[in-house]
Each structure stands twice: as structure tokens, then as C-alpha cells.
């Protein structure tokens, strides 16, 4: 691994001094947390969109569960009146 540092900037004006990751120009290691960070904005935006899609799917599943529970209660009420 190279020991030289590079500066990564993005649109939020954060300037990080990252240690380059060998064989990948978009990855750098944060010297403080030791985390590997991806500085590729296109990859970041893909990850953000994937996260939003996942949250939307979870919300939709919760709504469907609630509707099924409500329908189940209504069916039970109707069956109780029939008997």
C-alpha cells in the first residue's frame, strides 16, 4: 500500500486527506478511523438510490401487512355475524 496521501474533495466541500488504496483510484483510507472510503460520486449516488428503493420497499411491505390485518379482522367480523 502506498504511504502518500491524496486529497479527496466533493460537492459538500469536505476535504479529507486519504491514504490511497493500491490498484483503485476511487478508494482511500481515512487515517483517523482506518475506514476505506469510496470517493466516486457516481457509485455514491447509486448507493443512495438503492437505499431509498429499499426503504420504499420496506414501507410498502408494512402497508400491505397492515391492510391484510385489517381485512382479516373484517372477515372475522363477517363470519361472526353469519354464525
Task: Outline the secondary-structure elements.
Blueprint lengths: L5 E4 L5 E7 L2 E6 L6 E3 L2 H42 L1
Antiparallel strand pairs: 1-2, 2-3, 3-4
Which short descriptors sum up this protein?
83 residues, 2 domains, 4-stranded antiparallel beta sheet, alpha+beta, rod-shaped, 1 helix
What does this 3D model show about the protein?
The chain has 83 residues and is an alpha+beta fold. It has two domains: 6-38, no CATH class; 41-83. 51% of the residues lie in helices and 24% in strands. It has one helix and four strands. It has one helix spanning 41-82; strands spanning 6-9, 15-21, 24-29, 36-38. It has a four-stranded antiparallel β-sheet. Strand 1 (6-9) and strand 2 form a beta hairpin. The radius of gyration is 25 Å and the shape is rod-shaped. Residues 8-13 have low confidence and may be disordered.
Summarize the structure.
The protein has one helix spanning 41-82, and strands at residues 6-9, 15-21, 24-29, 36-38. The chain is of the alpha+beta class.
Amino acid at each position: 500500500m502506498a504511504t502518500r496521501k491524496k486529497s479527496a474533495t466533493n460537492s459538500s466541500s469536505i476535504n479529507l486527506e486519504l491514504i490511497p488504496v493500491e490498484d483503485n483510484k476511487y478508494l482511500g483510507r481515512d487515517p483517523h478511523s482506518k475506514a476505506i472510503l469510496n470517493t466516486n460520486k457516481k457509485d455514491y449516488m447509486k448507493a443512495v438510490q438503492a437505499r431509498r428503493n429499499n426503504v420504499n420497499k420496506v414501507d410498502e411491505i408494512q402497508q400491505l401487512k397492515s391492510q391484510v390485518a385489517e381485512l382479516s379482522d373484517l372477515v372475522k367480523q363477517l363470519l361472526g355475524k353469519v354464525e
